[in-house]
UniProtKB/TrEMBL annotation:
PROSITE patterns reported for this sequence: GMC_OXRED_1, GMC_OXRED_2
Species assigned in the record: Microthyrium microscopicum
Name recorded for this polypeptide: Cellobiose dehydrogenase-like protein
MF terms (GO), sorted A to Z: flavin adenine dinucleotide binding; oxidoreductase activity, acting on CH-OH group of donors
Family: Belongs to the GMC oxidoreductase family.
PANTHER family linked to this entry: DEHYDROGENASE, PUTATIVE-RELATED, GLUCOSE-METHANOL-CHOLINE OXIDOREDUCTASE N-TERMINAL DOMAIN-CONTAINING PROTEIN
Cofactor(s) needed: FAD
InterPro entries on file: FAD/NAD-bd_sf, GMC_Oxidoreductase_CD, GMC_OxRdtase, GMC_OxRdtase_N, GMC_OxRtase_C
Pfam families, per the entry: GMC_oxred_C (PF05199), GMC_oxred_N (PF00732)
Keyword entries, A-Z: FAD, Flavoprotein, Signal
Signal peptide: 1-18
Positions that bind FAD: 243, 531-532
Domain Glucose-methanol-choline oxidoreductase N-terminal: 113-136, 280-294
Amino acid sequence: MYQLLISFILSLAAVSTAAPVQNETRVDSAWDIIVIGAGPAGIIVAERMSKAGKKTLLLEGGGPSYWITGGRQKPAWLDNQQLSRVDVPGLYKSIFADQGNLTCAEHANAFTGCTLGGSSAINAGLFFEPPRSDFDTYFPKGWKHKDVSAAIDRVYDTVPSDDVYSQDDKFYVQSGYVAAKKWLVDGAGYANVDINKEADNKSKVFGRPIFDYVNGQRGGPVRTYLQDAIKRKNFQLQMNTRVERIIRNGDTATGVSAIVNGTAKVIKLASGGRVISSGGALQSPALLWFSGIGDPALRANLTAGGKLDGVSDWINNAEVGNGLFDNPNTFIELSNPSIQSYVHNYSNPIPADALAYTQHRSGPYSFASETSAFWDTLKVDNHTIGFQGTIDSSGFADWTSNNTITLNVYGTSGLFSSGKVELNDQYLPGPDNNVYYSDSRDGDAIATFIHSIFAKLDPKVLTPLNIPLNSTQTQIRDYITSSTAYTRGEVNHWSSSCRIGKCVDANTVVKGTKNIHVVDASIVAPLTVNPQFGVMIAAEHASDLILKLGKY
Ligand SMILES: Cc1cc2nc3c(=O)[nH]c(=O)nc-3n(C[C@H](O)[C@H](O)[C@H](O)COP(=O)(O)OP(=O)(O)OC[C@H]3O[C@@H](n4cnc5c(N)ncnc54)[C@H](O)[C@@H]3O)c2cc1C
């Protein structure tokens, strides 16, 4: 009865203004499945486990984010609205100026979300299906496109997405889109496509971005999968609960040790149960290390820092943390008198724009700021290297005049460089120095791409400001691989740090263990597109595999 009452209250929270109620005492029972981390992957895998009847506990270190989860941080212009800052797409970029309590500053040496929804609660919402070649080329047996296609369908069925984000069906802030289309479609021969309808084509394509918003508000797994899960009495979400380590008896997890409301607590697995780490590509490797699983070379340092207190043995798995990826990026500032930049303002939006959003979920605040995106590829030493450009509605750093927009160019799949997760002196996980351009072929390839699109750029359409249009390929390479405000920035698309077939097996079981899984961006290979869609596919597919395994 009590459980029914709790799930009733939780389901009310999904549709009304109430914050979700958490029953602290329930962490005392034993669980079939304990999922650590409520990012997109953790939410999806926990939803799938609970749907299959498993008694499932989802533990999130952070607190509420969206209004429906109890998130209440917001600017005054949203007073009287059932919206937190997280819900409003146009407030996306404010996270870089004021992180509130939404990011992992205390838990990771990099920018990433530590709140309900993980980084999907603070990201731009760009939602691009990876091309089939990503699965067929970069994923092992059991994870090819034919294997994951049912998972792709389920993500599409569950997570709404659209390129027409404004609820009045109009597009806003379009001068950058018009100029980019003139440059790339009319000038450089790019095909103008519906990006997700032609997901497999990533050669010379241009289009409007797709976002996973729901009715003009942030969407994603918190608004979809999680709302289904919290209606089930065999599912419990526990926020503000940070897992310190997985408790093992040799190769078998028996529970987790977590800080629940400031107190260390052991949460037990039921017999035959499984622990699934979904802490993201930086924090899942760290959690495995703190649980005594990883490269034995790390053990002395972890012991010295007290990180292995209570851990009596070590499981060798040198692939934990290996292969960390993020897109090497360059911001290119572009200007033209025809451009009208648009800067979303957290506290003082243009009154008409605030009204359009609060009354109709329309106008510039109904999207994060990206007006177009494009892709191309290049063959280098038998690798097909992918490139993506995303065009934003305003300038950046030294170039913020009203006629400036920013093109963010990334290298994507097929790059040669590969990094590692490393712990800093505070034992916080972050990227090592090899993530970007540690193989010089990457800088050359991205410079070739930028040089090729510059060759098609009529300065009457757009003029690049921080890289001269007539730069040689070598000059471009030297610039993009140097450290400036515009180059080598972290894109925060952390992935690939616990790869399938190396760190985990094809069923996502951590090698050397029986019932510990990693299901999050760590197991996703570098993709041709922004990662969240691929992370959701991986979580859906991993759920099928874990359910097939049954009890360990
Ligand atoms: C600023 C920004 C913008 C982005 N924009 C886009 C975009 O537009 N499109 C796109 O496709 N991708 C984007 N991304 C990337 C995308 O959001 C991530 O790839 C995705 O969220 C990764 O999902 P995940 O489930 O692996 O982990 P995460 O989203 O990192 O979630 C992990 C969760 O686990 C929790 N956790 C970790 N360790 C523990 C622990 N020990 N105990 C309890 N909880 C724990 C964390 O608090 C966090 O909530 C962006 C990312 C950032 C940071």
